[in-house]
Design a protein that fits this description.
seven-stranded parallel beta sheet, binds manganese (II) ion, 48% helix, 12 strands, three-stranded parallel beta sheet, alpha/beta
Length: 429
Amino acid sequence: MTHPISAEMIAERNAAALPALTDDYAALGRKLERRGIAIDAVKDRAKAWSVAVPSWGAGRGGTRFAKFPLAGEPTNIHEKLEDCAVIQQLGRTTPRVSPHFPWDCVEDYGALRDEAASLGLGFDAVNSNTFQDQAGQAQTYATGSLSSTIQATREQAVQHNIDCIEIGQKLGSTALTVWVGDGTNFPGQQDLGRSFDRYLDAAADVYAALPDGWRMLLEHKMFEPAFYSSVISDWGSSLMAALELGDKCACLVDLGHHAPNANIEQIVARLHRAGKLGGFHFNDSKYGDDDLDSGSINPHQLFLVFNELAEAEANPRGAFNPAYMIDQSHNVTDPIESMLSSAEAIAGCHARAALVDRAALHKAQQDNDVMLAFRTLRSAYETDVGPILAMARMEQGGAVDWLGTYRASQFRQRKAQERKSVGLGAGIV
Ligand SMILES: [Mn+2]
């Protein structure tokens, strides 16, 4: 296996950090012991958990106004895989990459799978793209894709999704994530009911092409690119579609795709209740679908989402296997640093949710002891699980101090010499 960062350098820096980490880990272990929690069990749980990174997240993002490229950022899927390998090598929580087509198209997907494996990576859900036109495409998606009023356009969108499934099979993926930008900008532009019917008809053709063991994940989004109505705008529309399409279809919750102040943790609980909690796209937001770094704005909400996931895991109602992925746009940071920071924030909320005294919480809820129920959650949220995550990273070959180690490696500066520069312009490609 090829590692992009020197394992010797990581080991040296870890050795220097070990005395302080051992001290902090032991202190936290004693504190948790008093609460009846074995710290090593929490660490093992952290080690067993993972989240995928998006191939497109490895590049600098942009807004519709501009993109400011980063010297040495990846320009193709091969370079993106290399950067994702850095994230996995240092952080050890992101062993899979979620690819996007056609942005990540290559000639030989078997070779791409081998290339990823040689970097210690696998592939997660494949993402289709019918929200923009591609060169040489017969039909335009300007007025919709799966819900288009034009049959040939719907058929083209269906075929693209089927092509994505076939690519995914070659990559070892087992899920297709479908997000459409379909919607309207004007009242009256389209019939709100019939456009949903057309979407369902076309999505059923994609569903019919799912191989055994595959899942189709529907991602809803309230607005943008359509600003008056979106066809799959909310979890209600997503759930209706997933229920109609069948057992292999479930809903994917992108944390930024809701109305402001929506109770996302309750949506998580509802979707799980319906057996339709398929996956997550993690990011954070202040105003809308800002695609900011996970946990950077509202870490408490992220924790509450994981608290519901821990409840769901303990009460699986048949199945509990959400696909977890980071989905954010890095406009002003080095994407490797942002995804390492985000993976740590997400893993931290996963670990803190495991610290909740569920029996005490359920009893307080049953007794309507409001303050005790709240404090039971809050004490888990306020626990600094940093030493647990750092110890888990170190024991798996990652970096205790991932930021310092990454910067000391001069990886980006080296790549700035090797890689061709990306162009200006908007977009996240
Ligand atoms: Mn998303």
